[in-house]
């Protein structure tokens, strides 16, 4: 059975239709990247998978063996609140010192135990979030734009760390990424979301799809298009929210 198997998922948030009729699954050990413009429902899909958002329609099935580790897009910690890394990793559930040390080590954040959360650099903070996600030895690691706020070298280093973790744990990885080289080189599958699944498949198949090109284009313009998502394809049946793969239904 798939680690996660989603069918016909629709989510409404405060009167807004965030997701419509999404089918999606993730298998053991695979790396799946979610791409899509801002507001396209990527975080909503991830939060639905971890059970933080209740779907208005559809089903999300988890294999009994599925253990999820989740790294959120951002986490605000009150800077006036004294909170060491060690204590943060013991919330809400206490873990042994050995497990905490091991998780920090795997996340490349060894030695930060006694530091204040509010005093960490962006890269260290993301690594501590990664360590927290590793505490329960997940076989599915879910990361929502893990390199947000990091510069290029910091971001490359974090992706290397994630790859190391994946090899060590043999876990599947589901992540949102805006970084083209990561999407293209490090994913088994790419899912392009825009309220519905626009397009999905192996990176090279998705890359040749008009929907993907509308997102990525080429060069700098392509990187910008990722955020703009010039939508030059037609959505048949979009008004009723039905699923549409267009010319990219190769998966
Ligand atoms: N609590 C809420 N109430 C109403 N609308 C919401 C709520 N949370 C999210 N939305 C809307 O749902 C849509 C999907 O949001 P989501 O955060 O999933 O997008 P995203 O693809 O992760 O975006 P980004 O790339 O900017 O992180 C957006 O239009 C957003 O404004």
From TrEMBL:
One BP term from GO: zinc ion transport
GO MF annotation: an example: ATP binding
Annotated keywords: ATP-binding, Cell membrane, Ion transport, Membrane, Nucleotide-binding, Translocase, Transport, Zinc, Zinc transport
Name this protein carries in UniProt: Metal ABC transporter ATP-binding protein
Gene3D superfamilies assigned to the protein according to its UniProt record, in alphabetical order: P-loop containing nucleotide triphosphate hydrolases
Domain annotation ABC transporter: ranges: 4-219
Coiled coil stretches, renumbered: none
InterPro entries xref list: AAA+_ATPase (IPR003593), ABC_transporter-like_ATP-bd (IPR003439), ABC_transporter-like_CS (IPR017871), Metal_Ion_Import_ABC (IPR050153), P-loop_NTPase (IPR027417)
Keyword Nuclease in record: no
SUPFAM superfamilies, alphabetized: P-loop containing nucleoside triphosphate hydrolases
A Pfam family matched in the record: ABC_tran
SMART domains (alphabetical): AAA
């Amino acid at each position: 059975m798939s680690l996660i198997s989603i069918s016909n998922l629709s989510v409404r948030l405060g009167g807004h239709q965030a997701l419509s009729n999404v089918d999606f699954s993730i298998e053991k050990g695979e790396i799946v990247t979610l791409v899509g413009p801002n507001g396209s429902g990527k975080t909503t899909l991830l939060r639905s998978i971890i059970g933080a958002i209740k779907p208005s329609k559809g089903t999300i099935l988890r294999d009994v063996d599925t253990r999820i580790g989740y790294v959120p897009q951002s986490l605000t910690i009150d800077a006036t609140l004294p909170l060491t890394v060690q204590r943060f990793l013991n919330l809400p559930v206490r873990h042994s010192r050995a497990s905490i040390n091991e998780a920090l080590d795997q996340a490349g954040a060894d030695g930060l135990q006694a530091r204040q959360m509010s005093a960490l650099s962006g890269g260290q903070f993301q690594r501590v979030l990664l360590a927290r996600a590793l505490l329960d030895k997940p076989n599915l690691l879910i990361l929502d734009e893990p390199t947000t706020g990091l510069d290029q070298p910091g971001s490359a280093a974090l992706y290397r760390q994630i790859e190391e973790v994946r090899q060590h744990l043999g876990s599947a990885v589901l992540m949102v990424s805006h970084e083209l080289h990561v999407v293209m080189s490090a994913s088994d599958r790419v899912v392009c979301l825009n309220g519905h699944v626009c397009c999905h498949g192996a990176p090279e198949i998705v890359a040749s799809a008009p929907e993907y090109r509308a997102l990525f284009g080429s060069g700098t313009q392509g990187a910008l298009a990722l955020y703009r998502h010039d939508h030059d394809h037609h959505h048949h049946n979009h008004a009723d929210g039905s699923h549409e793969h267009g010319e990219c239904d190769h998966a």
